[in-house]
Structures are given as structure tokens and as C-alpha cells.
Design a protein that fits this description.
Number of strands: 21
Largest sheet: 8 strands, mixed
Number of helices: 14
Radius of gyration: 23 Å
Helix content: 25-40%
Amino acid sequence: MDTVNGRGAGRAGARHAVVIGGSLAGLLAAHVLADHAERVTIVERDRLPDGPEPRGGVPQSRHTHVLIPGGQGAYDTLLPGFTDELIAHGAPHVGTPNDIVHWQGGSWFRRTEETCYFLTPTRPLLEWLVRRRVLANPRIDVVEGTETVGLVGDAARVRGVLLRERGAAAAAVGREPQRLAADLVVDASGRSTKAADWLTAIGAEPAVEETLETGLAYATRLYRTGEDGDGDSDVRGHFVVPNPGQTFGAVVLPIEGDRWTVTLSGYRGAEPPLDDRGFTEYTDRMPHPFTRDWLDAAKADSTALAYRTTANIRRRYDRPGRRPAGFLATGDAQCVFNPIYGQGMTVAAFSALALRDALGDSRRTPTTRRVQKAMFAASRQAWEVSAGSDKNMPTATGSAARSTVADRVSGWYLGRVEARATGDPVISKVFRDVVYLNAPISALFAPRIAKAVLFGPVKPTPQEPPMRREAG
């Protein structure tokens, strides 16, 4: 029987599970699997740092990250008390819409009372805290500095992985890959996964890929300011969200250590420069100089770093194909989003929860395909938000860039939602809950919201950046 956890054989059913990659998705998958396997081994290319430090396997590590409301609940479910621990280590709490000056679709959002908040730690801090929690489990081991170069098994079942020590010295001596037997292999190796080659090599079919690329590029730099930002307002962050008519973006948010990250974005041929003057002057392309004014008053605390790999890619393991039992994909190895939407860390936790629920469902046998479909479903809304927005950009290309009639109808409706969200606190709340993966997309079509969207007026919005919260 194609089962993931060998139900019927008790806890020992899946005697050994291997997770490829010590990413957030990999760590959280290992955490779940430890309740179903005697032993879980994480195979990681990098040497893992002892503290909250960047590592090479996370190329976005030094860029802006947010833990949105949907993600907070997921992390706390998997690792009880995690968000409190994150805050205790200095992760800022940023309320929305009250703390944010937010420009989108040609209008400024009103800064009304907080309806939710997100946390803005650095990625190394969040990853370190997760890693410390997960690796405290004696069932979980890590093999560091080691690459996965293939799968053991055939098109019917995966029975392990092929490993090779990473580094020039190991390659120079021409060592043969070592086999590590496993009852279950989970690919959490990220955006650059080689799973298609691994599956082909054992006679199986790789997943069909859906892609949507806009050519978005961004650059991030660290800054320091006065105690509360610029000292002249109560602003805790800036959002300038691109759209087809205004393709430049900016995100300014606090991080631990009394610092701020500033991420500027643009599209092909208009990427943010990395030199000091060019980075600052790039903000002159924004619809208002408020971000330029902020930069002029702040002090740079690092050089600017670029990031260019921002395509949305979805690997359809949920669809039928000649693929082996005992192999799953999670996190960015299954579905990766344009990072500018801040969904990746949340979907890693959603996928782990889906894995937990599928393995723990006493009503159904957890076949590989059934579990993978559950994990795919966990990423669906994030894909619809990210790819759905990117599909509207004039630079969009790829197999998922084509618009259907249904896309055009929903796009028309969501355009009306966006136009009203800036000035209507009720629509604004639901809009944020959906974008921050804290409510299903269907919430935007609830009778009260649909009536306001279809028949209600566009309410007034601030004419200039609201540098103070609304009273009362």
C-alpha cells in the first residue's frame, strides 16, 4: 500500500524520514514527521550557524521579511508560544493600518484603528528560533555540509537519497555518492530544487511547472534613525505597492536592534541601483517623495544588496503522473512566490500543518498523492494572491500569465475592492485579512462586502501621505 506513515504499523511505520534542506519548510516538516517516525534526518548543504546569522542557502536572508497574521497563528500552532518568543527577541510589532503609510492603486490608505499586525524580524532571527526549537527533539538529526545528488529507488517507490559531502575537496577525490536509506523523503530544498532531475533519473515523471515571471528586481539596505523613526510622525512603516501604471515599489520596516530595512523594487530595465546615491535617488520615481524624505533623514547602516530571482513557480505534484510513493515536496520546492508579497515563511508553516493533519487523519489512509494534494492546497491562496496580482503587470510572462474570462471577471471585482479598501475601514479589514492569509478569498464575496463593493461609493481617502494616525 502506498502509505506515507505506514498506518497499521504504529509509530514505527515510517521508521526513517529524510528531509532535504534545513529551510523553514524543512525544519517544520521534520518537526511534524518526528511524531510519526522513529528517526528524522535533515540533510543540509550549509553549515548551520549557532545563532541568528545569515547563511548562503537563503539568498534572501538579508532582505525584508514579514510574518503576516496567517503565519503567526500557524507557527504558534506548530510551536506553541513561538510568536511571544520572537517578540521577546526584539521582533517589532507593526499594526495595520494604523502604523503604516500605505499607497496602493493611486490612493493612500486611511490610518484607522489596528485590525491586525505583522511581525518584522530578520530572517536569520526567525530561522534560528525555529531551528533551536525543532532540533531540540532527540528524534531529529542534521547532516550538515552535505548535498543531496539523487534519489534511491524507482518509479514505484523512493527508498532513500544519494548524498555527497559538499566542497571542492570532496569533489576532487571523486568520491561516489553515499546512500542513506529512508521510508519517506521530503524535498524542502527550495526554489532551486533538482527534484525534476532526480525523479527522471529513477524513471519517474517530474512535476509539470506553472511559471509566472514579471522581471521584478529589488534591493535592500539597512538604516538607523531616531528612536521612533524620523521623530516627526508615528509612522512605523512605508508601503508603496506597484501596479500596472506605477511599477516602482518601496517597503520600509523596523527590525530588531533598532534598525530598519528599506527595500526598493522595479522591473526589467529599471532595477534599483546599489550605489549610495543611486539607491536614494531611485525613490524619486515613487508617486510621492515621502520615502525619499525618510531616507534623507536616516543613516545608512549597510551596503545595498540586490535580489533578482522573483518568479512564481508552482510544481504540480498534486496531478496524476508516474511518480513514486514515499516522495513529497514542500515549501519553495513545491510552490514558490514572488518574495515581495511576504508569503513564503507563512506557507512553509501552512504546508507543515497540512502534512500534520493528513498524517493524523484517522479516516483516510495517507497515500503519497493524498498528502501531497493537501500540501498543495495549503499554498493555493498565496498563489492566487501573488500570481493573480503579478498576472496584471505589463511585463508578465510564463505559462501562468494567460488570463481567462474568469480571471478578467474576478480582476474587475477585485479592482473595485482595492479602490474601496483605501477609504472604507470595513472593506479594508477584509482585504487585509485575505492578503495576509488570515481569511479565505471567499470573505471578499460575503454579502455585506459584495454589496459595498458592487453598489457602494468610493469613499474619500487622504490626499497626502497620512503621517499621523486618525484620532478615535
